[in-house]
């Protein structure tokens, strides 16, 4: 069996982020409404995901169904560093068990790629650092 195809449709680079830690940045201009790429990782149960996040400094876990989650903490996909923003330029979609990220608008080369995480298990305990004018302040 060969190497799986690269799920990235556009160049994405991981670099220090003004929002939080490492972020995902466009390595080239990305047109609006285009698939940027995917986040791959280990498929695990939601129960196992809850156990793992207890010991993680940076959570890279996405629930893809009520019973399954993907742990992207050991993935090489740079989109795993996509930070939250209350004014995002991209959207995360779950399609057939895959985590896909699409541009909501044109994204310039060098711009940080962000998604609105929506409802999280942080229950408002984390401070949002996105800096958007309409920032909710909490995740």
From TrEMBL:
Q: Name one Pfam family in it.
A: SET
Which keywords does the record carry? Chromosome, Methyltransferase, S-adenosyl-L-methionine, Transferase
Q: What GO MF annotations does this protein's record show?
A: methyltransferase activity
Presence of the UniProt keyword Lipid biosynthesis in the record: no
Its predominant location is cytoplasm
A biological process term (GO) from this entry:
methylation
Q: What are the GO cellular component annotations?
A: chromosome
User: Which InterPro entries does this UniProt record tie to the protein?
Assistant: Post-SET_dom, SET2_Histone-Lys_MeTrsfase, SET_dom, SET_dom_sf
The Post-SET domain extends over 124-139
> Any idea where this protein resides?
Chromosome
The organism's superkingdom is given as Bacteria
Query: Where is each SET domain found?
Result: 8-118
Query: By what name is this protein known?
Result: SET domain-containing protein
What is the species listed in this Swiss-Prot or TrEMBL entry? Sphaerotilus montanus
Q: What is the lineage of its organism?
A: Bacteria, Pseudomonadati, Pseudomonadota, Betaproteobacteria, Burkholderiales
